[in-house]
Design a protein that fits this description.
The protein contains five helices and eight strands, in the order βββββαβαβααβα. It is an alpha/beta fold. The longest helix has 16 residues.
Length: 135
Amino acid sequence: MERVGGDVVVLEKPAADTPHLRVREDRGYTVLEFRGEIDIVAATEIGPLLDEATSGSAPRIVIDLSRIQFFDCSGLRLLYRARRRVLDHGGHLHLVCTHRLTLRILRATGLYRLLPPATTLDAALEQPEATSGTL
């Protein structure tokens, strides 16, 4: 916030929109909405923005996978990275996912228990402030 001539001017950081990621705020959470095909190319684009979103003290993050069409091990690395960074900074992380094949990958890797997915963004935002599950 900055004061200019007695008025309060709120400076907002512009949302980071890329072909594979939309970043926005919703009810006190930073929502990282992954879009399209999440592969090594997308991960290269998303990684720095994910790091920025999870770098502060006690970040409150929702990763929304409801608009993805493909998700490979590069996407898994992004989820593990986000989880580790949020835990390291004392924050809260929720996941939204209904994509059948992605859910299968999450179950096979055990990430399903670490980040139990909600079926909608509203459901994720209404979850208790648990950082993530445990193995």
